[in-house]
Structure formats: C-alpha cells, structure tokens
Design a protein that fits this description.
The chain is of the alpha/beta class. It is about 40% helix and about 20% strand. Helix 1 crosses helix 8 and helix 5 runs parallel beside helix 6.
C-alpha cells in the first residue's frame, strides 16, 4: 500500500519508467531510494528533485546483479518497484547472456534481498512480450514473472509478497516507435515500418505508473496485473502521429525475436483471469502451493468475478485511425 512517509526503492530509476515512478512516489510524499548503475542519470535525478524534495530522495549507485549492494540498499524499505531490465529485443538477441544476468538473476537477487530485509511488497514490471515469448527478452521477462510468483511459495514466515505488472508498448519512452517516427518526420525521411501487418498494444506512461500503484494497493501475492488497453497496426499509428499529412514509408522487415502480434493474456491464462476496474488480474496457476491466508484472500475477492474465455491478442478489435489520434491527443502525445 502506497502511503505518505513509506520508504520505496525503485530499481532502474534512471530509465523512462523508473524515473517517472520516482517523480510519482515523491509527489505522494514517499521517501524514494533511486537505485541505478547510471551515475550520470542519478546526478540528473538529484538536480531535478533535490530542491523540492530534499532528503526524501536517496541516490543508490549499484547494479541488480550485485547481491551485497542490494542487501545494503533494501534496509528499511517498505515497497520495491523493480523496473531495472535490458528491454530492447534486438540487443538481447545479440547479448542473451547479459539479458539473463540482468533480467533473470537480477530478479532472483531482488527476491532474496527483499526477503532478507522483510520488505512488505515487491512489484516487478514485465511486458506483453513475456506472453508466448518469441524473443530472448520476452523469455527472460516470462521467467522473471515466474520467479516473482514462486517467491510467494517459499516466503515462509516472512510477510513479503511479490507480484508483477504486464505492460504493452509504453508510448513516448526512450527508443519507442513514436520517438523514431518523430525524428524521421522532422528530418523528412521515410518512416520505417517493420511490417504493414504488425500490431501492438499501447499504454501511456501515466497508465503504466497507475498500474504499478494499483498493484501495490491491491496485490495478494503471485498475481499478474494487466491494464485493459487498446491495440492498433503500426501503419495506423504512423498515420496518427503524422496528423493526417501525407507520408511515405518503407517496410524494413522483422528483426530477430519480433513477431507480428503480441498477447496480454494467453489461452491458458484466460480461465483464471478476472477483470476489475479496467485491470485484468491473472490469478497464479500455482495458488494451491501458497499459504492458506493467500488462498483465502483470492477466494474472498475473485470467487464471484467472471473470467476470460479467450486470449487477448493485439490483432483483434483494433482501434480505428480516429480512435488512435483521439487517444494520442487526449494524452497530450500529439497536439492540435
């Protein structure tokens, strides 16, 4: 539960999602431990927030690969938002061993350090690429989710609880397709489209942050929270960002690890996925392995809530061009 005065640690605090989470937690009155291996990024966080928030922001230079450093950083922490990751699909295909070190071993280190420090809640930021993964990055995120869920099996006498949130493509993050399109339009270059048939789920930064807070406020342990979000083709997104102006594009083909559509929930997960307040909750398949208090809590909240009957795919129920533009405009991603 996020309350004023609690101590929150955010890994990957200098990244797009991590830095937005830092700002949000500070605005809510939390004491924020910003943890990252990017020294320059931490310096800029300090310059940006120190004047207004003083000692409420703490800077921790370190890597999630370093168990000892995590043990030190997590002392006295109430809630962890684990945002640190290698997120680029292509780079992870070329460097799979590094992806394993950060995205899998790093998660395991967070779990063990959190148990040792008696952290109350740990929320792992995952991706729709973890659903039926075709890439190294997606596979590491899937294993990260599984580690988070299984941590609730063996927490023993600890009160620490672990859950995950699953994002679609977060609009306007570093290296996102919108950044690429904007740069290409500004330089009057052809827009690069991977495939005319490629579709993706999209979520705004505010929605991503709100999903993390929703998870902290509603988690029982082991579940995966997924926001109900829209999807569209990449071509239609390009049309929307071009504001109706004529544009030309070239098809560059799929990169290693990419697929034409993504999923938020698999067919296997659907029968144990409930929708409450526009958020899907994937109830853990291994619920029977967890403690009685967790099992009882799930029964109390979800027993009478309906379940999905099919998977959620990005190539189904697509947004129209007008809906995409209205969505981008409402979220101040495009102007008039």
């Amino acid at each position: 539960m996020i309350n004023k005065g609690i101590r929150v640690l955010i890994t990957g605090a200098c990244g797009s999602i991590g830095s937005s989470m830092v700002e949000k937690m500070l605005s809510l009155g939390c004491i924020v431990c910003a943890f990252d291996q990017n020294e320059d990024g931490l310096f800029h966080l300090d310059q940006k927030y120190k004047h207004n928030y003083g000692d409420n922001i703490k800077l921790f230079l370190g890597s999630v690969r370093d168990k000892v450093r995590l043990d030190m950083a997590l002392e006295g922490v109430d809630v962890v938002f684990h945002c640190a990751a290698l997120k680029h699909v292509y780079l992870s295909e070329y460097n799979p061993f590094e992806a394993i070190q950060t995205n899998i071993n790093g998660v395991d280190n967070i779990i063990n350090a959190s148990l040792k420090a008696n952290v109350k809640q740990v929320i792992f930021t995952s991706s729709d690429k973890a659903v039926n993964p075709s890439s190294t990055m997606g596979a590491t995120k899937l294993l990260g989710e599984r580690l988070m869920t299984s941590a609730n099996h063996h927490s023993g006498d600890h009160s620490t609880r672990f859950s995950s949130v699953r994002f679609g493509n977060v609009l306007n993050t570093n290296g996102s397709v919108l950044h690429i399109f904007r740069k290409q339009l500004k330089e009057k270059k052809l827009l690069t489209i991977t495939s005319e048939h490629m579709t993706r789920f999209f979520i705004t930064m505010d929605q991503a942050i709100n999903l993390c807070i929703y998870a902290a406020d509603n988690m029982i342990g082991g579940e995966v929270f997924v926001m109900n979000m829209g999807s569209c083709t990449i071509v239609d997104l390009a049309k929307a960002i071009s504001k109706g102006e004529p544009f030309k594009y070239k098809v560059i083909g799929e990169k290693p690890g990419e697929k034409l559509y993504e999923e938020l929930v698999t067919e296997v997960e659907a029968p144990r996925t409930a929708l409450i307040s526009n958020v899907y909750t994937v109830i853990p398949e291994t619920l029977s392995m967890m403690g009685p208090s967790i099992v009882e809590a799930y029964a109390k909240i979800y027993q009478d809530v309906g379940r999905l009957t099919k998977s959620l795919r990005s190539d189904k129920e697509l947004m129209s061009e007008l809906e995409i533009y209205s969505y981008l405009k409402a979220n101040k991603i495009v102007g008039e």
